[in-house]
Amino acid sequence: MAKTLYLVVSGAPAPEGVTDLVRRLQSDGYTVVCLSTPLGTRFHDLDELEKLTGEPVRVEYRMPGTGKSLPPADLVVACPLTFNSVNKFANGHADNFAIGLLCEMVGYGVPTVVVPHCKPQLAAHPAFQRSLDTLRGIPAVTLMYDHDAPTNPASPPGNAYTRPSALCRSEAPGGRSRQGPDHPPRRFQCVVRPP
């Protein structure tokens, strides 16, 4: 039986391909349900995501008694998650459906992989660092970053946040991400395999 994975996207470019990520997740046995922040709708091919998943990308809360409920999630992947969305999620600001769903999934204890994506200058902001620390402290959340993402030499170590391709190259869900020179991430072939 296929496991259900919620893929949450936000307003960041993903030239490596969110659609390719969906295909990979499906080939690993997941039924993928896509959700987007309002700004994320401008950055991703919603029509293609709908074709791949067979369901429209969810952006808005549905009114009670309308539409159909989402199937229960076995895993959540938030990729790419922008500076703004990371800060909102970490601080519980559920002002849109996608971020509200991330907050709710933490309450249910659903394993959630967060792949931040922002410029090094934003990643160096103290609020972002506090948000990452908050997310690291949530047992159900795993943070991931891509060593190959562009970095600014002036920014602190571990601020190379990231691209969807990191999901097939970095730390496994359930592991604790400890970025920095003393705690390099473990490498895996693919991190989102059904149990």
Structural commentary:
The chain is of the alpha/beta class and 195 residues long. It has a single domain, classed as Rossmann fold (3-Layer(aba) Sandwich). Helix content is 28%, strand content 15%. The protein has a five-stranded parallel beta sheet with strand order 2-1-3-4-5, with helices on both faces. Helix 1 packs parallel to helix 2 and helix 3 packs across helix 6. The radius of gyration is 16 Å and the shape is globular.
Fourth-level CATH superfamily: Flavin prenyltransferase-like
Distance between the termini: 11 Å
Reading off the top of the CATH hierarchy, the class is best stated as Alpha Beta
Helix content: 25-40%
User: What's the SSE pattern?
Assistant: EHEHEHHEHHE
Largest sheet: 5 strands, parallel
List descriptors:
disordered C terminus, alpha/beta, globular, 5 strands, Rossmann fold, 195 residues
In short:
Helices cover 28% and strands 15% of the residues. The chain has helices at residues 18-27, 46-53, 83-91, 97-108, 120-123, 126-136; strands spanning 3-9, 30-36, 75-81, 112-116, 141-143. The protein has a five-stranded parallel beta sheet, sandwiched between helices.
Protein topology:
Elements (H helix, E strand, L loop, with lengths): L2 E7 L8 H10 L2 E7 L9 H8 L21 E7 L1 H9 L5 H12 L3 E5 L3 H4 L2 H11 L4 E3 L52
Parallel strand pairs: 1-2, 1-3, 3-4, 4-5
